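About this split. The held-out portion is used to measure sequence recovery: a designer receives only the structure tokens and must propose an amino acid at every position. Recovery is the fraction of positions where the proposal matches the reference. Here is one held-out target exactly as it appears in the evaluation file.
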């Protein structure tokens, strides 16, 4: 009954409920915390200048890209190949349709490429040349999607220290200009304060570049491992592991020959 009453609420009532919820949430926050955060950000901008503002924007972009890539890799199951190996076992048992259906819900680059491989081999077994070309296309598209955004993280990791160094140079120029203007009345504490403020941008640039570089390298390693898995599994399906079969047959033949020779002797 209460659910039915909520369904009869008009748009204005629902909006009013949302506004009340937001107001209650804001009221529960400590207002001094927000004021302190704003004052701290403003002080950093006043000390570091526009370079700090640029680094702050880049840090937000880097964090957004990293979270988006992490969600993408987790949701698609990148690096998890259990279902793919199960489908390959079904294929080797001549259960092609079951193998294809098993990978329908899988969204990782390896799963998508292996599924296209199985479909090509199942529905067009006599056109393997075209199947190989289409597999290359699918693998390239899936890996390109997986790598999207990593280059941006690498770029941020490269330019952040340079921006920090640029801000430091600007700050040092201002500090020595102030020193020149002071003439004989030089205050060493003021000079030291100007120098540490100038070095603040370098520290901020390094603080952004180090984690961005680590995350980009980690993501790149995951994609490289996925590419290696694609090449290994697709080649295994296309060749039917012919070298392993030939090796087993050669080993069996050699064992049979040795057994026969031993029996004759």
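Reference sequence for scoring:
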């Amino acid at each position: 009954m209460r659910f039915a009453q909520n369904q009869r609420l008009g748009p204005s009532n629902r909006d009013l409920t949302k506004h009340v919820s937001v107001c209650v949430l804001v009221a529960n926050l400590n207002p001094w915390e927000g004021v302190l955060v704003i004052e701290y950000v403003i002080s950093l901008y006043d000390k570091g200048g526009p370079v700090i503002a640029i680094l702050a924007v880049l840090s937000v972009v880097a964090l957004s890209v990293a979270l988006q890539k992490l969600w993408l890799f987790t949701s698609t199951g990148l690096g998890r190949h259990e279902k793919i190996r199960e489908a390959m076992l079904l294929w080797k048992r001549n259960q092609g349709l079951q193998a294809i259906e098993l990978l329908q819900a899988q969204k990782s680059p390896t799963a998508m490429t292996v599924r296209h491989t199985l479909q090509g081999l199942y529905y067009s077994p006599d056109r393997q040349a075209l199947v190989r070309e289409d597999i290359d296309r699918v693998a390239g598209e899936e890996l390109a999607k997986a790598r999207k955004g990593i280059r941006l993280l690498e770029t941020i990791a490269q330019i952040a220290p340079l921006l920090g160094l640029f801000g430091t140079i600007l700050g040092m120029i201002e500090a020595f200009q102030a020193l020149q203007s002071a003439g004989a009345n030089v205050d060493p504490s003021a000079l030291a304060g100007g120098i540490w403020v100038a070095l603040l941008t370098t520290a901020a640039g390094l603080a952004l570049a180090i984690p961005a570089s680590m995350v980009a390298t980690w993501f790149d390693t995951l994609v490289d491992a996925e590419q290696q898995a694609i090449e290994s599994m697709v080649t295994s399906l296309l060749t039917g592991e012919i070298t392993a079969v030939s090796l087993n047959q050669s080993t069996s033949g050699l064992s049979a020959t040795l057994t026969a020779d031993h029996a004759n002797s």
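Annotator remark: The two ends are 94 Å apart (CA to CA).
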